[in-house]
Structure formats: structure tokens, C-alpha cells
Amino acid sequence: MWRTIVLRAVVGLAIASCLAYVVDYAVLRYRIATSGEAAATDTVTVLYGTPLKNGQTEIFTDQPQSETCSRSIFPHLGYPACWYARRHPTKVISENRSSGSGPSSLAHGTVATWTRAERQRL
Q1: If you write DSSP's letter for every residue of 1-70 in order, what string do you get?
Q2: Pairing of strands 41-51, 57-70
Q3: DSSP secondary structure letter of residue 75
Q4: Which of 30, 106, 43 is nearest to 80 (CA)?
Q5: 8 Å CB contact between 93 and 79
Q6: Average pLDDT of 57-85?
Q7: Is the dihedral of CA 15, 17, 22, 23 positive or negative?
Q8: Tens of pLDDT along 78-102?
Q9: How many angstroms separate the CA atoms of 106 and 112, rounded?
Q10: pLDDT, position 111
Q11: In which order are the strands placed within the sheet that holds 41-51?
Q12: Domain limits of the chain?
């Protein structure tokens, strides 16, 4: 008895979630088709930061960047949702970098120092 009720609730929640995602995507595509991409997307100012050895994050406030976001509930078209992007305006640069030279090859826990040209490429 309880197992059937829980199973139906889980299946119903999964179907409702999928339906919400599909409807959200359809509304976004409708906005793009009728009013153009500018009506369905927005830009948000983000700042980049890097983690320091003491656990804090250094924020680079001298080079704010613009990020395109979608006006939707869920992320679509490779863009984050605007409500999420506005609530998370700081992008932390990952500590784990690929091999190579320069700031892109930092070891775990190393403090980064970027030149102005290198930060503009981010």
C-alpha cells in the first residue's frame, strides 16, 4: 500500500519536472521566434575570483565581464537562467588546471597573479 503511494508520487514528480522543463523551453523558443533573441536573453555582470590558500576568495573587481543568460526557469541554449546568474555574480576560477605554462597551469592551492591582458582573455 505505502510502496504504491510512494512510487506513484515519485513517478508523478518526475513527470511534472520533465513537463515543466519542456514547457519552459517551448516558451523560450516562442519568445525567440516572435521577438528575437534579445527578448529571450539578458546580460549579467560577473566578476572573476580565485581561491586563496587561507580558504578565502580573491575577487578581481577591476575587470567586470558580461555573461549572457536566458530568461527562463531552467538553463537553456547553453546559457544559465538569469535568476541564477544574478544571484551568483562571482565566477571562481578553478584550482585544478591543465598542464602547461602560465596562470592556466596553476597547481592546487596556488595563488594566481594575472596580467591585465591575461584577465581580459577569461
Answers
A1: -HHHHHHHHHHHHHHHHHHHHHHHHHHHHHHHHHH-HHHHEEEEEEEEEEE-TTS-EEEEEEEEEEEEEE
A2: antiparallel
A3: -
A4: 43
A5: no
A6: 87
A7: positive
A8: 889 999 988 988 888 765 544 444 4
A9: 7
A10: 43
A11: 57-70, 41-51, 90-92
A12: 2-120
Q: Higher confidence at residue 97 or residue 20?
A: 20
d(CA 46, CA 40): 19
Q: Cell triple for residue 52? A: 586563496
Judged by phi (left if over 0) then psi (alpha if -120 to 50, else beta), residue 98 lies in: beta
Pick the residue with more confidence: 116 or 7? 7
- Which CA distances in Å does 46 have to 66, 100, 110? 6, 27, 23
Residues 121 and 119: their CA atoms lie apart, in Å, by: 5
Strands 41-51 and 90-92: parallel
Cell readout for 32 is 525567440
- 18 pLDDT higher than 90: yes
pLDDT of residue 50: 86
